[in-house]
Amino acid sequence: MSNQIRILIVGCGYVGTELAKLLRDNGHAVYTLSRSAKYINGCNHISADLMNLAPEMLPDVQYIFFLAAPDHHSKTAYENIYMHGLEKLINAYKDRPVKRLIFASSSVVYAENSGQWIDETATTHRDEFRADTMLQAEEIALSFSQSPMIARISAIYGPGRHPLLDQVLRQERFLKHDTVYSNRIYITDLCRALEHLMRIEYNETIYNITDQEPTPINTILSWLATITGTLFPEAALSDQSDHRNLKNRRISCERIIRAGFSHMYPSFQQGFHAIFKLQKQQKPLDY
User: Which tens digits make up the pLDDT trace of 35-72?
Assistant: First the structure.
């Protein structure tokens, strides 16, 4: 057992829980940290607040995944988690032999909004607090001396988390008047990609985590409506508020593919088919 890779996952929500199970199943010694008590079979949990971390509370590990998320949508909440909390963690591990810190950022930092393809070198923006806070947090993560990595993650979906499908079923989603590309990543592929980042030897620092087929949002909505037999609501009822946060861009994942990663769910169709299959089977979640 002494040759197990020891990993700390900070944040044990939707992504952290699934990543912990994957790493556990692959034979690693997994530690999770969150404010609330969390039991995942075969993992070691630490209940602690990032803002009140003491170094002696934390295990010696080789890899750290920072997946913590704020509990509400405000500038203060974002800064507490992504800046102050991350700084606390880095300070606690600055003199310990960690091989790599992997910080979960977001594709919200990209400025592109005209439907063009973008990669990790694309222009970023600080026009709203989420993007600004994430970019500041990325800078903090990159100050960690032991081979830090940034994972810029697109919209996450999977079993138990599919707001787009839910909105279609409730007839609350309207077709967009213009072509607007949407980017997403299925939870299983996201966790597999995060694990893959551990094994990359030549670190290019920033990696987009998204599927291989950015798709116009209207195409996804129409497909979901057809598969589920749902009608769209009357267009006259739309105030387009459901599209106000959409950014029109096609995010490339070529960098992580060149680094050896392959998707199990390369497009939205494979991902949603997996969700429908699980719903039909009513398969219980493995917690």
Answer: 988 889 999 999 999 988 888 999 999 999 999 999 88
d(CA 261, CA 146): 22
Predicted model pTM: 0.94
* Phi/psi of residue 221, nearest 5 degrees: -60, -45
* Mean pLDDT computed over 126-137: 96
Alpha helices, DSSP H, located in 33-124: 75-79, 86-93
Q: Report the CATH number that the domain containing residue 81 is assigned in CATH.
A: 3.40.50.720
Q: 116 lies in a domain?
A: yes
Nearest-angstrom CA–CA distance, 56 and 77: 26
Residue 287 lies in a domain: no
Phi, psi of 8 (to 5 degrees): -110, 130
Flag whether pLDDT at 1 surpasses 50: no
Could you tell me if residue 108 is inside a domain?
yes
Residue 164: which domain range?
6-281
Contact 271, 186 (CB under 8 A): yes
Alpha carbons 147 and 200: distance in angstroms, whole number: 11
Alpha carbon distances (Å) from 95 to 52, 55, 80, 89, 145: 19, 10, 23, 12, 10
State the virtual CA torsion across 111, 115, 119, 124 in degrees, nearest 10: 0
Closest of 93, 110, 116, 97 to residue 154, by C-alpha: 110
The answer to whether residue 73 sits within a structural domain is: yes
